[in-house]
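INFO  loader      accepted 1 record
INFO  loader      residues=143
INFO  predictor   begin
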Amino acid sequence: MRFRNRQADGELPEVNLVPMMDVLMTVLTFFIIVSMTLTGRQITNVTLPQTDGAGVKTENEDKASLVIGLNSENQIVLEDNVIDTNQLSDAMQTFYTEHPDGVVLLKADRDLDYSKVVQLLRTMRDIGGDRVSLAIERQPELD
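INFO  predictor   done
INFO  writer      dumping tokens
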């Protein structure tokens, strides 16, 4: 049996890497977008206060958390839906029943009077929220 030499003129075979790179970039982009959406639960119409991050504790990142928002119109927001205090009470009690070590994270708009934030914190305390953390936004570091 005789085989024919396809590369009789001495050319090396070419590997086209462009389609493989396109697939890799698409997969990488997908994972970046998914990881960004999963790491920070955003609440619409809430602009957090900024800080340089000095003295900020981040020990609760590994625990389950319930994110409650307080927007600039002093409305309580849960999963992008405006709720009242009765719904807040139900959501917090359900969360604490399912996650006894969980933490409630309050994201209050920076334009609110602090008295409004304190009022909601008192309401949450009365509901039974003894593990409530306030969310802040860290300023980008300038080098």
